[in-house]
Specification:
10 helices; single chain; eight-stranded mixed sheet; 244 residues
Amino acid sequence: MGTVTVITSGKGGVGKSSSSVGISRALASRGHRVLLIDCDAGLRSLDRLTGIDKNLVYDSADVIKGRCAPINAIYPCEGIDGLFLMPAPQSEEEQIGAVAYKRLTDLVRKFYDHVILDCPAGVGKGFRNVCSAADRALIVCNPDPVCIRNTYKVHNLLRQMGIEKQRLIINRYNSQNFFRLRGYDDLDRVIDEASVRLIGVIPEDYSFIATLLNNEITCSNEGIEACARIAARLEGEEVPVKIF
């Protein structure tokens, strides 16, 4: 029975979806079967980041509404053994409700070691619907005061929903820009204000995004390494957090 992990954020533009793909790739590279579900109806992007955008026919809404069997809406990611994607519907009007997400994840988790839910940004209805199906959460933020304030709000909302297993991912970290911003003295202050235990830091690394967009399987860079460390820590390994 696989673990269902929601990857969420308090605001858009923090790199949540790229983090979701990077971590999912890292888990698959460890020999696991991983199902990544794009939950952002109307604004789907994971099909592009996993290189299957030209092959899509069905999506999660087709499964929920009985227009296809679940297997028909699950696509193997080319060149990445063990990684599969269920895309979000193109129309925002086909947003899936909380009960349907729970039924869907209860079904598919029987066949995968990890089910990763890429949550819509923000804390609206879509956020609540998706998170209701999760066992644990990874909250992605950038190291600036506005993003950290939103992260703290997400942390409390998740607790109200009964999700106590939460970890923080600091994304797009650049040491020079961090200290130039003068928002915090160090990353410890960021973690304290977010009130969520840190699991990893992903650097600001454009080659990482290029690796995902171009579906480069064997490429290695700091972003890929950071996701590999997060995947290891998710599975209980005592891998130190690396600040790139």
